[in-house]
DNA sequence: AAAACATGCTCAT
DNA sequence: TGAGCCTGTTTTA
């Protein structure tokens, strides 16, 4: 259930509440017993996310790499710091207190108070019994983080972690400052336009740009009004650059919101409604057969890169190509620009 | 009760 | 391109 935004939130939560402390590391399920034993008792030195990869660096230099895959999730219990400054701060109102478990991996949601929710959790013994198949439990005396269903969970040395990083494209959430962001954007544009592969596939390729998943892919392409089947090579430079800046904006929103809401047309009230109602969140994702919110044409779904890809066959166009010039000369980029393509650049909010 | 499905990725062919 | 893996929820029989 996680795309990049989720992993960044997890990294941040772990940073706030577990970094700098010695951790009790166990594998209640048993499938990570050896790794847990190796890490148990070490101080967690750093927590960071790149794309969908989570890296937890321990004092010894050991790095726990976690990838949630399609089904992974973290459950948090106990004392938790508010993730976003200014957020309704249950924890900042005086003494630390217990909180409901928050699942990070799909939409974060609060359990109903009457069954296993707030009241029950408050009076539940701490640490709580593991729920389901818990691969790893990271615990301080106050906070517990349970990892379930990851596709990757392994201990690496620093070189191993570096090797994983080297295979990832830029992630806007890891970049600080305009210069870094601009340079990364140029690199992403280059990687997108270097290949003849469909742009819908390239956006899912973590070595092109990191952290985009199936929902973000669909929405980025819709917001750019770009046909997913367009070869990367034929994506106008401006459009490729817009995909990058839009991704940066959507990711930042996703990290702040804890869920993917990608419609910039919503009023604040509607946006609030969309938090509770998944059918309101997206332009095209998951809406096969339903009318496009812009033009009314039924949304189309088809497989691309082994995943369902949703698009509006009318709003999302293939840009005009300049096939004759491309094969012969290396283009003189200034003269023939994107000129007449009537692409609406929908800026987020 | 069983099957289908899901915001991912790797490996073999 | 397809199978396999990880786990939980929703839909179908």
Automatic annotation (TrEMBL):
* InterPro entries given in the database record: FPG_cat (IPR012319), FPG_N (IPR035937), H2TH_FPG (IPR015886), Ribosomal_uS13-like_H2TH (IPR010979), Znf_DNA_glyclase/AP_lyase (IPR000214), Znf_FPG/IleRS (IPR010663)
- Please give the cofactor(s) recorded in the UniProt entry for this protein: Zn(2+)
Q: State a single Pfam family of this protein.
A: zf-FPG_IleRS
Q: Which residues form the Formamidopyrimidine-DNA glycosylase catalytic domain?
A: 2-105
Q: Where is the composition biased (Low complexity)?
A: 330-349
Recorded family membership: Belongs to the FPG family.
Q: Which protein, by its recorded name, is this? A: DNA-(apurinic or apyrimidinic site) lyase
């Amino acid at each position: 259930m996680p795309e990049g935004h989720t992993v960044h939130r997890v990294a941040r939560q772990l940073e706030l509440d577990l970094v700098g402390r010695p951790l009790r590391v166990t594998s209640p399920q048993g499938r990570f017993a050896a790794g847990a034993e190796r890490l148990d008792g070490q101080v967690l030195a750093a927590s960071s996310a790149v794309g969908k990869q989570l890296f937890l660096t321990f004092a010894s230099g050991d790095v726990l790499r976690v990838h949630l895959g399609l089904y992974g999730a973290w459950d948090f219990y106990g004392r938790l710091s508010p993730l976003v400054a200014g957020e309704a701060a249950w924890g900042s109102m005086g003494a630390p207190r217990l909180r409901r478990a928050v699942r990070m991996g799909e939409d974060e949601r609060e359990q109903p108070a009457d069954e296993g929710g707030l009241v029950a959790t408050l009076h539940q013994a701490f640490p709580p019994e593991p729920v389901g198949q818990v691969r790893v439990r990271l615990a301080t005396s106050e906070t517990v983080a349970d990892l379930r269903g990851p596709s990757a969970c392994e201990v690496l040395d620093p070189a191993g972690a570096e090797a994983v990083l080297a295979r990832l494209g830029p992630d806007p959430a890891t970049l600080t400052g305009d210069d870094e962001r601009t340079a990364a954007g140029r690199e992403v544009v280059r990687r997108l336009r270097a290949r003849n592969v469909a742009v819908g596939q390239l956006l899912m390729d973590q070595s092109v740009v990191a952290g985009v998943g199936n929902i973000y892919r669909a929405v980025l392409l819709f917001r750019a009004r770009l046909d997913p089947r367009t070869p990367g090579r034929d994506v106008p430079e401006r459009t490729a650059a817009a995909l990058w800046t839009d991704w940066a904006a959507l990711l930042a929103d996703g990290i702040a919101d804890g869920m993917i809401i990608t419609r910039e047309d919503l009023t604040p009230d509607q946006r609030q409604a969309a938090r509770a109602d998944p059918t309101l969140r997206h332009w095209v994702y998951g809406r096969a057969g339903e009318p496009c919110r812009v033009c009314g044409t039924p949304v189309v779904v088809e497989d691309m890169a082994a995943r369902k890809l949703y698009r509006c066959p009318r709003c999302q166009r293939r840009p005009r190509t300049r096939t004759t010039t491309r094969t012969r000369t290396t283009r003189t980029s200034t003269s023939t620009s994107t000129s007449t393509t009537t692409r609406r650049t929908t800026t987020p909010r």
